[in-house]
Amino acid sequence: MPNVLEAVTTTMNSLREKDPDQPLHIGEAMACWTYLGSLKESVVMEQAALNTTVDEELRHILHKAIEMCNSQAKRLEDFMRREGVPLPPSSPNRPESDPDSIPLGVKLTDAEIANALALKASTAVIASATSSAQAVRNDVGLMWTEFQSEQLTFGVTLKNVMRNRGWLIIPPAFTPPGVPTT
What is the phi/psi pair of residue 111, to 5°? Predict the structure, then answer.
């Protein structure tokens, strides 16, 4: 067992260190640029959703999503500035408005908002995993792993709320051909 613990400790310590004089490769820079742009646009979508719903539980989740996206965006912006990567353009923040003044033909339902959040979180998990796998630098890989972990945690919380509220879209059960039915 000491060999396994030693290997884990060595791996964890190496992940915390920036590779000396190793610039970002173009894929790492592009992943940062794309993910930051997605985070910024997600915040705008979440702000618009806040202006649409009056459901307190969904509003709480939207506030948590905005908080997470802003936190990740701040860390990523700081990293990109240090590395000399230009920041992507983004849409302006949405002002607060009265959800009851939105016409029904325009207003998203709570289930639509929750499913859009789930799609956003799923996409962010995949983007983070892909970026982590493509990272050469340990500090970059660790950053993506942190982002993925945060998105996964958020996604599990959201899925539980969606399941409890009846908003989770579940595919039909699969029964392979030839399986006996009872």
Answer: -65, -40
